[in-house]
Amino acid sequence: MLKIAYDPIYAHPLPEGHRFPMLKYELIPEQLLHEGIITSENLFSPKTLNEEIILWTHDKTYWHQLRDLTLPAKEARRIGFPLSAGLVEREIRIAKGTIDGCHYAFEYGIAFNVAGGTHHAGTNWGEGFCLLNDQAIAANYLLNNELASSILIIDLDVHQGNGTAQIFENEPRVFTFSMHGANNFPYRKERSDLDIPLADGTSDDEYLAILKRTLPSLIEQQKPDFVFYLSGVDVLKTDKLGKLALSMEACRERDRLVLEECKLRHIPVQVSMGGGYSADIKAIVEAHCNTYRLAHHLHF
User: Fold this and answer.
1) What are the backbone angles phi and psi of residue 209, rounded to the nearest 5°?
2) pLDDT tens, 35-52?
3) pTM exceeding 0.90
């Protein structure tokens, strides 16, 4: 069964100026339900998360400042959202949805979080609309519970997964791979285990050729027993914050390459949806829904 973490809190409570791109969190499940790809049984609402699990990834002082809404103003501005109890609760539930998705991925091969991909959050900082790093929290959860011993994080959002890279810079059991726009945010990059920075305007053929050359050999080399995939659709040419030039078809082919490799090698994969900021909300929803459609076709 295709299990998808979704909660209305994913779209709320966000500041007025940020609500348009966040509509996708409501529209994606609605579209999949409309198409009959899923039913309400496929959706699950994540609950809260034990503080101990958060502290396996994030610094205690940073977490307490988030929790107590005492983060210094300069650090709060770096996040990009006005800090609120509702926003912190949202990030906790997103992280719990990714952890729950790991368990479903072990059972069914793949699972999704409609939100997630909060890869700019580092050990002791939030940045770029990210407070807590959901896939890093889930990866440490798997390691600490001995549910996985070799993890590969595939981050194909247009922005480098700088927080994820920093969190795991000294953790040999987690390999971080980020393929992103060289000139996109964040302007101060961290060092992933493998970074592939791409020039502005990178086209379909070039992008897919690089991924085809890289991914199969990387998986063969690392032999992960679990994969996290960040499938941001801000790689699209229509994206307002991205600088690449991928078509909808190339974005779908990118997802196919990743999901087929995992399926072929029987590696469970958890997918967080990441960014997407095209001016037309329909383009964002369609690109994200393609990832679900592919997973449904491959696994179910």
Assistant:
1) -65, -40
2) 999 999 999 999 999 999
3) yes
